[in-house]
UniProtKB/TrEMBL annotation:
Source taxonomy: Bacteria, Thermotogati, Thermotogota, Thermotogae, Petrotogales
The enzyme's E.C. designation: 6.3.4.3
Species this protein is from: Petrotoga miotherma DSM 10691
HAMAP family reported in the protein's UniProt record: FTHFS (MF_01543)
UniProt protein name: Formate--tetrahydrofolate ligase
Pfam family, one: FTHFS
DNA-binding in keyword set: no
Binding locations of ATP: T65, P66, A67, G68, E69, G70, K71, T72
SUPFAM superfamilies: P-loop containing nucleoside triphosphate hydrolases
Superkingdom of source: Bacteria
Amino acid sequence: MLSDIEIARSAKLKKIDLIANELDIPEEYYNLYGKNVAKVSHKYLKELNFKNDGNLVMVTAITPTPAGEGKTTTSIALSMALNKIHKRSIVTLREPSLGPVMGIKGGAAGGGYSQVLPMEDINLHFTGDIHAISSAHNLVSAVLDDYIKYNKCDIDSTEVSWPRTMDMNDRALREIIVALGGKKNGYPRQDGFIITAASEIMAILCLTENLEDLKKKLSNIVVARNKKREPVTVKDLEITGALSVLLKDAINPNLVQTIENTPAFVHGGPFANIAHGTNSILATKLALKLSDFVVTETGFGSDLGGEKFYDFVSPTFGLKPSATVLVATIRALKYHGGQDKKELNTPNLESLEKGLPNLQVHVENLKKYNIPVVVSLNKFYSDTDDEINMVKNYCDKLGVEVSVNEGFEKGSEGAIDLAEKVVKASEQQSELKSIYNFEDPLEVKIDKLAKNIYRAAKVEYSSQALSTMKFLKKYGYENLPVIVAKTQSSISDDPKKLGFPKDYTFTIRDFELSAGAGFIVALAGDILRMPGLSKIPNAVNMDIDKEGNISGLS
């Protein structure tokens, strides 16, 4: 089989204005970024208020493993297959971060015959959205140190909660000292960098509905405390307007297409283990007005991106999901059953059987939201009929539909059965039931999540978490939704607990306030917001020849 980049180059793309025209987007509402990319104005959403929304399908996965599950590939294949069976569909995805692209993961535009294109552009600088977010974020950092130097806003330099950012994995920048070199450079203090996907401004961009809303959310960002220990906000810094200017184009969703010319919005890129993990709400809402079925991918497993989509994003914006697709692979299930990752291509029914409870916990958790669930079993060449039948029989016992998906190898043709089952599931009458209410006390929200989704017996708080909780309650932030930042490698707070851990103690070590984005981040475990590169980063595989052809990007 050809490599991803070879398949991408052999695809016959339509000019993006033809894709826009097929969606009935007037020319005045989009700007071309070359032949194959366009930005669609957020203002067009107002013109579509008269239209009913299409069906919303959320794609999530079992607990991720080094073997990979293929959520993006599944999302793209499903959307293409829905079009194949004459259901007008758009897929909405997050933008890849350069950190994982240059690090260990590689690109994030799908794979095989289920890709969004142009793959090279999407995986690299694309339309500059992430760079705009980095610039806006770092403007806040620069102004903070300027105000500390000139003693404005009475900022306590030991209570600055706003780090710097860059869109690259670099562990050396996690903890640094800034403003060395004498008084002319300011006052030295401890600082650090986070990756841009972890910036609150990234979350805000993805939770914004228009420029006015953007400015309101930006102004509410808490960046420090003053010497009276009161919150200092972006509004206090008087730079809301400047930040909004930097983001004026980034707010508009990016329109591209799949390998089979299905429309795709690729916009925003928050991670689900440290933020809410979903593409922009503007992209999703636009797609819902322009199609019969919107397929949207959420980050990591259903205990992360899936939970946050159903407990935070959907209730906040009035979204009404129609179906859930839970992605699983036999290789990943065998890994959860204890099989060595070097042996995952070797048939092993015993390891598979031991790993199936991880599929069980995700199915059970998703059913609590009252939205129909379809399992997508992504097929690999090494999967045997006996292994596939074991998973099918297990799904029957769980009372959930399952489809063997071959979208990677066959594109839309490999996902027809999945598409038909998703359509059937969407025809069922269902209404989303969230795990907690926004009005619940902070401890109650976390307790409900810990026991219902993470399967813990109880929750414990560190002394630092209890102290921060007092601050949140004192200044009226307690009723904000909760985003739990935790490992993606387990449904628990311990990455070593594979499979179906339960009846353990879930620990909250601290809280971070994202007042602009509109949520509280509960930190469980040691979550890094600035990843490091691997011993052999993906960057060493990349090159470009004299004709401009890129290699090593996948």
